[in-house]
Amino acid sequence: MPISKTTIVCIAIGIVLIILSFVGIFRPIGDAARWLFLPVVRTVSQTTQEAVGWLHGASRTSEQDRIAQLEERVRLFTTDQVACASLERENGMLRAQAHFLEESGYDSVGARVISREIGSIRARVTIDRGARDGIETGQAVVADGGLYVGKILTVRERIAVVELFTDPEARTAAAPLAKPRLLGVIEGRGNGAALLTYIPSSEELSEDQIVVTAGTEEKVSGHLPVGIVNVVNGKPTDPFYTAALEPLADLERMPYVSVLRPTALAPEQP
Amino acid sequence: MVLGWIRVALIALLIGCFEVAVRPFVPWLVFFYPLLPVLVLTLLGSRFSRAVVLGTIGGLFLDLFFLDQLDYAVLRFPVVVCILAYVSGKWLTNRSLYTALALTIFGRVIERIFAWCIALIIRGTGEGVWHGIAPVFSFDLLTVTVGFIILAVWTSRFLTAIPRAAIRESSWYES
Question: Where are the strands (E) in A85-183, listed by range?
């Protein structure tokens, strides 16, 4: 069947547009369009999340309320425990290290979650902060008062995509709370699950142990609580163990997050 | 006439906003993607050009806020509309509910095949493109059915026109 000239022209235009978009020619147009529609998307997503949260709360029984309260208390105590353990280590080390931490500190910028894609094959959220707020790829993202949830994956002028650590493509260096050394790698498994892998068989790991970020990645600071060990898998003859990890943060209900950016990247104050 | 185009653009923006900011946060709507069913209804109930514009604007909105997907919805949906228009004109010449349902199923399959090809080229794997396709189909068919019935009841777009001469000559009429 002969292809008409119009069809060929349309296909050629489509290919050219795709190539130009790869090069980034249309990025300023996209940024301008996002600037225009971001307030609407932000308002609609906030309203939707509040409505779903209200419906969820209205349908909860008193036992479920009690469970939710206890889970929230566990998160707060975990954050306090990690902070205390980190402070104890800092006091035990030289004062010069404290000066080093102060010099290369982090500050946080709050962001609202405006969209998300959470399921078995993907775990990512879109936030309403971007490059103009000092956001860069690889920066750590926390929620619920300091619980690690993921890293910045893609950045545009006014929005960014956060890859949650439960995303099947996400990898996070982890350490146990008590010992400041690399323990293994957290690999996302989708559906809110994660697996701690490459745990040396010499390492003693038990259930309910808290796992934190190792701090070995360039833009991810250490001692950020990640999750609690559920089940440790492995035989005594295996060189490495794996452990199922339960996230501490509630990744399903996360209307606000904070991005940890180095203070050097913070926009200048007017 | 201008109002018609503005209406198309607003509908496309509303649908895009729904798919970006509402659908991901409501558990029972996670598999509800209304853009394609609305495109089919526009193609059958209005003009081809308006369906293309609706698909382009809706797809553009999705590409603006789904940064990591890189599946060029702004090109994918207009191409799907062109294919559906060709199929509709060539084989499914009547404008009935069954035509709408058939076009919807075919359109969703074509749209997923496009997304799968783009995922293979860009990410090297098409894994996950067909995830949840059954509930997606269910929502598509339900949306098209409800939309078709509403359009048929409130407008005269799907009424069959019978010539007066044929009515007069009909023996049923005379009897």
Answer: 106-118, 123-127, 140-143, 147-155, 160-164, 171-176
Determine the average pLDDT of the residues in B139-143.
95
Residue A26 host element (H or E): none
Cα A13 to Cα A7: distance, rounded to the nearest angstrom: 10
Interface test with A, best of B65, B127, B131, B133 (most A CBs within 10 A): B65
* Residue A138 main-chain phi, psi, to 5 deg: 95, -10
**Where on the phi/psi map is residue A232: left (φ > 0), alpha (ψ -120 to 50), or beta?**
beta
Cβ distance B72 to A120 less than 8 Å, yes or no, reads: no
Q: Model ipTM?
A: 0.79
| Rounded Cα distance, B34 and A187, in Å | 33
pLDDT in tens, A184-196: 999 999 888 999 9
Contact B20 A115 (CB under 8 A): yes
Helix axes B73-90, B48-65, angle to 10 degrees: 150
Question: Which residues, listed in sequence order, are joined to residue A245 by a DSSP beta bridge?
Answer: A194, A229
Q: Which amino acid is at A183?
A: L
Interface contact flag, A114 B21, Cβ < 8 Å: yes
Q: For A85-120, how does the pLDDT look when each residue is reduced to its tens digit (9 = 90+)?
A: 667 665 655 444 444 445 445 688 899 999 998 887
**Beta-carbon separation of A41 and B22 below 8 A:** no
For residue A38, what are its two tokens? 């971001």
At residue A89, the pLDDT reads 61
User: What is the spatial distance between Cα A141 and Cα A109, in angstroms, rounded to a whole number?
Assistant: 10
Question: Please, what is the angle between helix B48-65 and helix B2-17, to 10°?
Answer: 30
Is A194:A186 a contact under the CB 8 Å cutoff?
A: yes
- pTM, full prediction: 0.80
